Known about the structure:
about 250 residues; alpha/beta; Arc Repressor Mutant, subunit A; 5-stranded parallel beta sheet; 5-stranded antiparallel beta sheet; 15 strands; elongated; DNA-binding
Amino acid sequence: MSIPRLLVVDDDAEMRRMMTEFLRKKGFMVMTAANRAQIVSHLDQGRIDLILLDVMLGDESGVEICAELRLERDVPIILVSALSADHQRMQGYEVGADDYIAKPFNPDLLLARVRAVLRRGRRSASLAYRRNTSIYSFGGWTYDGKKDIVLAPDGFQVALSKRETSLLKVVLANPHIPLTREEIADTLDVNHDGATQSEAATGRAIDVLVGRLRSKIERNPKEPEMLRTERGTGYVFAVDVVVKDG
Amino acid sequence: MSIPRLLVVDDDAEMRRMMTEFLRKKGFMVMTAANRAQIVSHLDQGRIDLILLDVMLGDESGVEICAELRLERDVPIILVSALSADHQRMQGYEVGADDYIAKPFNPDLLLARVRAVLRRGRRSASLAYRRNTSIYSFGGWTYDGKKDIVLAPDGFQVALSKRETSLLKVVLANPHIPLTREEIADTLDVNHDGATQSEAATGRAIDVLVGRLRSKIERNPKEPEMLRTERGTGYVFAVDVVVKDG
DNA sequence: AGCCTATCGTAACAGCGTGTAACAGTCCCA
DNA sequence: TGGGACTGTTACACGCTGTTACGATAGGCT
């Protein structure tokens, strides 16, 4: 991949300047836009690898723009906003943003997010970042991404918590691939909780979460057949997954 | 996954030789290249799982080559360089390298990085990740690589630990061939790349491991019929093995 | 044959990674 | 505002793995 091309969108010129300067120093190629028309213009002109989009764009809603862009093109988007309320955050994700960061932000954090999103895009590692309405079948089970429900082989619905569902989505998106706890935690965090702490995946949260999911979807949780432990590494979803796009 | 294929790129022949020798000992298949043309040639000829690319390639810039390779193909790259300044490192990342290591490097560190990148790389599913799904039959016993289980002649399943299973796979792959402890240890480590195992199998780990496996699969562990000791050399799997590809 | 030494087998132990029950904090909703 | 669902933390138990130590043994040597 050559130098990544970023598009910084903000109606505040000073903010544009600061972000641009910082990101250029870090080696990215940075373009700017102040409104919807300029965004479209840039997208038409040439490749853009990632958009950093301010949520408040004058009287336009960045969230709406985000949704529209998503519909038309497959450009990764990081939403930037001064509003850090959870409510706002959620809105961003539902609209299809790949990540969310609150102003004022720590430059290093921004950098980390940018790289993470770019890297993800390159690998198309995870479905979990897009709202997806696909239906997954695995070992008799079904996960319906549209209704967000899980059906056991016998057809009965199993109630998973939000976090358990997220974990399931992550492993469904990466069958047969060993995932470290850190990878899982990062993905889960970005998925749901744009919370600013990307570090400090301190304890055994993932272990416990895995245990809880196992207790609901494994026939014999003591000897997992699907979500297996890869000692010294992490976990693997060791079952074939069939995805039916919805 | 079959044996990973690495491409070592360095214009210094001595450095190529050292790295190649070390990595081959660790069980990788290693090819070498000294310039851009040779890299391309190797990439065209066959599958390459990972490139170890020197940053200073005579008068060419490894960084540039890295960027170009990234554009055209999705080969993981580890940049190797004598320049350890942070600035340089950053450049490497932004250009798309998967990791960066400074010369002179600790061999174990190199190994750890290589394994980490290979493990990560597997998630670009198009590539060579393939489970070993063969079924091995030996002296009435069965090892099912698909389900990763071992069946005794009486049909009952025998529980082997992960390490014991690995050892079994190694000797099954080399029936009637005397294996030294070092060969076994190296192969075991490569098999489970991703785990940053400690190197330099100091002690008698293999002996003990062999003993444990024997206690589970030999009729009379005191007088092994299958996994025999080759005094002064190592161990031999002295039974015919029939492999049925799956 | 008898001795000597390198080599091997393995029990015992220690360290680490993982499973999980119990607890505590948070969020949400009536 | 209280209660229940959800989630992370902690602590303990346990299995896996490598190390160590000691005894057994093979094979060479005199």
